[in-house]
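Retro notes, item 3 of 5
We never archived the inputs for the zinc ion complex last cycle. Fixing that now. Sequence and ligand:
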Amino acid sequence: MPLYEFACEVCGARDEVFRQRMTSNIEPPPCPTAPDDPEHAMSRVMSGFAHHLSFATKVAEAEATYGAEVDAAMGPEPDIGKFARRYDEAAKDLPPGE
Ligand SMILES: [Zn+2]
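Structure as it came back at the time:
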C-alpha cells in the first residue's frame, strides 16, 4: 500500500497518509501541531528508498529540490540526457537515505 509522507513547511512536523492505490493527487493532511493554521502547509516528502524509485519519481523529487533548474532543463524541448547527468551530479552530494 502506497505511503505518502508529508512535512510541514513551517514547523517541520511530519505526517503520513496511506492510499489504497497509487495516485498523483493526494490531499495533504493538516499540520499535526497546528491543524487550524493555514500557514502550516504540508508538502510531500520523498522517502529514502531512492533505489526503488522510478525515473518519474526521481524527476519529481529532484524538481522539488532543483525546481528552476529542472524547469530549464525540461523546458519546451526536454533534454533528458542533460537533466539526467545533472541529476547524477547533484545526487552525489546527497547524504544516504534515511
Ligand atoms: Zn506546522
